[in-house]
Amino acid sequence: MNIRLTVNGRPHTIDVDPRMSLLDLLRERLGLIGSKKGCDHGQCGACTVLVEGRRANSCLALAVAMDGRSVTTVEGLADGERLHPLQAAFIEHDAFQCGYCTPGQLCSAAGMLGEPGPSAVTENLMDDPELTPAEIRERMSGNLCRCGAYVNIVSAISEVAR
Length: 162
Description:
alpha+beta, 2Fe-2S_ferredoxin-type, 2Fe-2S-bd_dom_sf, five-stranded mixed sheet, anaerobic carbon-monoxide dehydrogenase activity, DNA polymerase, domain 1, Ubiquitin-like (UB roll), 29% helix, oxidoreductase
């Protein structure tokens, strides 16, 4: 199938197998290897990208479903040489160790910062709560870090959220 999509601000027209995942399209066909294939089951978040500004596990999304849509990967977060505020905060707070999950963590955090409303830990469901460490941990719970850098990841996100 022939699809058109925008990836990191660049338009692409590409033939894809209807069974191809967005992750495989990004890595194998477009050469964008920032998004990682961790579990390939949507459980670890290493493949998280932004589709129309919302978080998505690219290992579960079909490439054909991206026809006409805009996708942002970790490679598209920075503005040229200027790092995205989250990228700078992750460096400043030492919010990574091996770095395998970092691209997914960054994309997930970027999407999360734009998502209003309560989460499972919000006391009053009618509130649009402040992003406390508990809120951040809950909202980022779909992104796993085998190295256990969670404390620094939450600190980095908290700084940017302020």
